[in-house]
Structure formats: structure tokens, C-alpha cells
Amino acid sequence: MTDGQNDRSLEKYRRMQRIRQFEDLAEAIHAQGEIPGSLHTYAGQEASGVGACMALDDTDYMVGTHRSHGHPIAKGAKLRPLMAELLGKATGICKGKGGSMHLSDFSVGSLGETSIVGSGVPVAAGAALGSKLQGNGRVALCFFGDGATNEGAFHEGMNLAAVWALPAIFVCENNGYAVSTPASATVPVKDVAERARAYGMPSIIVDGQDVDAVEAAVAEAVGRARTGGGPTLVETKTYRYADHAVNMGRVLLDRGGEVDEWRKRDPLALYRAKLIAGGTAAALLDAIEREVADEVADALQFARDSAWPEQAEAFDDVFVDRLPIPDFITA
Amino acid sequence: MAKATFLEAIRQAQYEEMTRDERVFIMGEDIICNVFGTTTGFVDAFGTERVRDTPISENGFIGAAGGAAMVGMRPIVDATISSFLYPAMDQIMSIIAKSRYIYGGQARLPLVIRSCLFYGNSNAAQHSDRNYSMFMNVPGLKIMVPSNAHDMKGMLKAAVRDDDPVLCFEDSTCWMSKAELPDDPDFLIPLGKGDIKREGSDVSIIAIGGAVPLALKAANDLAAEGISAEVVDPRSLVPLDKELILRSVRKTGRAITVDPAHQTCSAGSEIAAIIAERAFDALRGPVLRIATADTHLPFSPAIEKALYPSPERIVAAARKLVGVRQPENA
């Protein structure tokens, strides 16, 4: 392992740690009522998001889902504005108007985390079309789950990208469940990847708990996209540990010992063991974990110290120009 | 300047804006074969990268226009007939209207979605929609419904240059009407600026899209009876030129809205409510609404036409409101 590869490996580990620790803290303060609304956590899927985003350049585009914490962190977003958004503060990445389902940092190429399942697929196809028309060499990657692959938007976006040979990468993070319903009950093919054949599109199935494998698979797709070879469907086989959303336990079917089985292949633990086996000092990884803990704590402090948005903010960003504010608000 | 049709106005607006700004491109179903004549000569001028035929997948390509706009393009989507917007409601409502807001202003969506209001010609219920009012109910979409070729050209050019998403509704009953079209490449009519199509003093007729020519005909007929009708054309519904409408109503003291949409929750209904709330003191009678009856549009020509607004219905409403007058020299 060269030093360069090592840096890259450590960065992958760091980003996975950021996601895990960011969400662990978010879940704890959500339980105490400090985060309003719902919380859809990504725990268990970190290798999928980080591996995929590490295969992208900083200027490439990424579109994500309602499970929105992991994707921007994987793409390199800073934690402070993300945590502030979870608390609904003015300094939040979306000025407190998006919240947990929409953590989206355009400065790192994240074009939105949409909470209508499947609706990001046409957007990513469009971003890829924009790249093609501008000839700027950028690719657009779209994350979605197995449930989304039953949506019309998924098929229309895939078809459009294929027929126009757009530089797009469609990453299905197949965690096995759409809310509570198992994929076996809703997806009539064994692997989501099979659906690519209908669009003459290549596909890759990869172990979603192995960050290096995901990166390699997506890198292959990125290479094809950048050189005019069109889109690829990558299916990462992964798992989410928690309910669809925090405190939605009553709608989740009994998963038996399944969660425990998957935890044995936890992406962070797997990667830590792999790095140590490859010669990385455990102390170095410990140090990264502590640094990330400090970063996350700092993000929470920043969020807590931040002001609430002004009421007038509710009327900004509907259009480029602020809407008039009604009398009952100003009175 | 030369006289040209409404469809030619659309062609000129698109051609000029695509010439001016290479970020502008057009896509939709059957653009290249140029079904309605709004893209004549476009492939030769701009090539097939910027003039794109799409698969029949409205949700897919309208959503893709949103994605392309987010990365710096300025798409014009030709969605042909306005009922074809329904398969794309997911992308129009959840992505195009809301993305800027939910991402706190990080997204910018400069795109135009064109579609025609294709009614009054025995095309049955699925092809006879006048659905702009539905879209007025969601913030984040600008909505234009011009009534003549001149306004069409200036407003479409302004829409292409607008940094917000614009739905452009093209009333097919106006397609063949002609007007003088300015050839100034920067001829723009800003969205949100209405127009008085005819001055009058007894009653304000606020008419939308294809109802404007009907209102002008009615105003002529009313003049023969000694009733002076003012015809107000809002031209765009979002933003809406409320001040122009209220000024007219304060002058005449009477208001009739004429809207080709179904009456319930129509644009005309919203305008009537605005008048009642903000110019009640000036009113000398109730605000009357003329709209399409709240039923689907039938195929049979024997029973379709009577459901829409007509000059006769407008005249009758104005007479009721003003009080029947005899011509002065009768």
C-alpha cells in the first residue's frame, strides 16, 4: 500500500465515522426532543455512500434520498451546517427549511436529497444532460433504494439516460426494505440490477458493506460515463439497522435475528479490521475516531449556538425574489 | 414588424432566445418533426443536441429539465398538450416547484414548461384541459396565459430569461390569431404585468387567455347598448397584477371574471375573491364569475361548446350587473 492509497483509505474511514457518529448524536438528541420532525438514519449503509462518492470528483453531481445524512457527508460536506439544519436553525444548510430529509450541500455537488421516493432519478438524468450539453466532463450520480425501483420516475429517468447515453451512475442502495415491506414482496426480480437490461444498460452488483468494493464498482461506472459510454446501474447490497424512521418500530415487521447478523458485517468494523490487517496502526484509526467525535461535538455546539430563522425567511426562496409577507405575519 | 400568428410568435421567441443564449435548449415529444410549427428550422440552426426529441415520458423529461436547470442550463420543455402535465405532476410539484425552497435557496431552476390548452374542438375530456388554476395552488411556479401573439412573444422571451420555473399555457383558440410582432431581440413583456385591452367605465371584465377575445367581442356588443366595458387581461396569473385589476374595479364599480377553466377554484374565482376582499367599498354589485361548467368536456359538438364562456354569457352578466339600458338614441 502506497502512502497515497493509505491517505485515501483513511479518508474513507474518516467519512464513514463522520456519518455514524453524526447520526448517533442526532438520534440521541432527537430522543430528547431537540431535533423536531422525523429522522431517517443511514446506519449500516455507510460503505455504500462513502465508496460511491469517493469514486467521484469534487465537481461531479450527486442526488440523494430522504435518508439524507449520509450522502452529503460522503461527498465531503462540512458537518456544522448539516447539524444546524437538523435543529432547524438559520445557519442550517437549507436555512432551516429542509430538515432531516433534505440535507443537501450544493457546494460539494449535492443537488438535493429528495423525500419523494424515486423522484431524484430524472433530476440526475437532467444534471447529466446538462453536463453533456456543456461538455464539462462531469458525471451525475443518483442514490435510491430498492423501493424506488418500482416507481415510474426510476424507469423514465433510466430510459432517458440510456437512450441519450448520458454520463449518469444510478446507485441502488438495496437495504432489503421499503419502509417495512421486504423487497421480496415488491421487486419481482432477484436483483435490482437485472432491471438495467431493459434499458440496454450495464449493471454491477457489489457488496455494499465493503467500501473499497463499492468504490471500485462505481469507479468503473464513472469511467464509462466520462468517456461517453453512457449510464450504469450499480446495486449495493446493504442493510439499515434502524427502523425506516426513528420511532417507527410498530410498522417494521419482525426482522428476527437479521439485524444482529448484519451487524457482524458492519462496514466500519470490517474496514477497520482490513486496514489494520494491511498494516495501518490501530492508534491512527483511534485518533481519527476521536477527531471525528470532536468534529461532531463542535457541529452540535455550533447548531445550538445558532439563531432561529426569522419569520420572514418562510417567504424567501419560493422564487428568486422574496414573496410579499402577509399582514398577519407582520402584525 | 410584420403580422404573424400566435404559433409563429412562439417560434420566434424560442428562436431568438436560443440564438442569444447557448444555455437555452428545447426538448419534448416530436419537436424535430415540428407538429405545430413552433420549431421550424430549429434543427438546421441549432442541431440535435439542443433540439431533442424525448421518449414519451413526461415525468422523466420534465424532471430532467429540472436537473439540467440546476446545473446551469435553461431548458424549454414542450409538453405539447396541457393534460400531459399530469403524468409529470411528481416532478413539477415536488421537484421543480419546491427544490429552491427546501434547499434554502441553493437551487435555481430557470426553465419553461410549455403546453397548450387544447379545448373546444371535440377532443373529449382527456385532451380538453384548461388546468393553470390547479398549478396556482402550489407556490414556486410562475404561470403565464397570454391571449394574443404580441403578448405571447414578449412574455415567452421574458420567461426564458426568468430565473424561476415558468409554466407557459398556450390557448389553442388563439393559435391562428395574428398580431404585429416586434423584431427587437430584446422585446420583453415582464411576467406580472397585466394589460388593459379595452378602456371602459361601467364594468370591468377580467378575462384570461382565450376568454380575452370573447370579452372584447362582448364589450363591442355592450357598447351598442350603451354599456362601457373595460377588458382587463392579467396575462400572467403568477405573479398576478392585482393592482391593475383593483384599479380598474375601483373605476367601474363592477367586476366580472371570465375564465376558460372549470369554475370551482378557477383563476377567475381567486381574482373574484381578491376583488371582494380589497375593493369591496368600490363595488356596486356582486362580483360575477363566468367559467366553464363543472363537468368533464364531452366529445359531441352538440353539447360541448355551451359549457364554455361565450360573448353571450358575458353580455348577459354585464346587463344584469349594470341594469338593462337602452341605446341612447333608441
From TrEMBL, chain A:
All copies of domain Dehydrogenase E1 component, residue ranges: 14-308
SUPFAM superfamilies assigned: Thiamin diphosphate-binding fold (THDP-binding) (SSF52518)
Domain of life assignment: Bacteria
Cofactor(s) needed: thiamine diphosphate
Known catalytic reactions: N(6)-[(R)-lipoyl]-L-lysyl-[protein] + pyruvate + H(+) = N(6)-[(R)-S(8)-acetyldihydrolipoyl]-L-lysyl-[protein] + CO2
Keywords: Oxidoreductase, Pyruvate, Thiamine pyrophosphate
Gene3D superfamilies: 3.40.50.970
EC number annotated for this UniProt entry: 1.2.4.1
Enzyme class label: oxidoreductase
Any one GO molecular function term: pyruvate dehydrogenase (acetyl-transferring) activity
Function: The pyruvate dehydrogenase complex catalyzes the overall conversion of pyruvate to acetyl-CoA and CO(2). It contains multiple copies of three enzymatic components: pyruvate dehydrogenase (E1), dihydrolipoamide acetyltransferase (E2) and lipoamide dehydrogenase (E3).
Stated name of the protein: Pyruvate dehydrogenase (Acetyl-transferring)
Organism of origin: Rhizorhabdus wittichii (strain DSM 6014 / CCUG 31198 / JCM 15750 / NBRC 105917 / EY 4224 / RW1)
From TrEMBL, chain B:
Transmembrane segments: none
Keywords: Oxidoreductase, Thiamine pyrophosphate
Cofactor requirement: thiamine diphosphate
Gene3D superfamilies assigned to the protein according to its UniProt record, in alphabetical order: 3.40.50.920, 3.40.50.970
Top-rank taxon, per record: Bacteria
Limits of the Transketolase-like pyrimidine-binding domain: 4-176
Keyword Oxidoreductase: yes
GO molecular-function terms, A-Z: oxidoreductase activity
InterPro entries according to UniProt: THDP-binding, Transketo_C/PFOR_II, Transketolase-like_Pyr-bd, Transketolase_C
Protein name in the entry: Transketolase domain protein
Organism ancestry: Bacteria, Pseudomonadati, Pseudomonadota, Alphaproteobacteria, Sphingomonadales
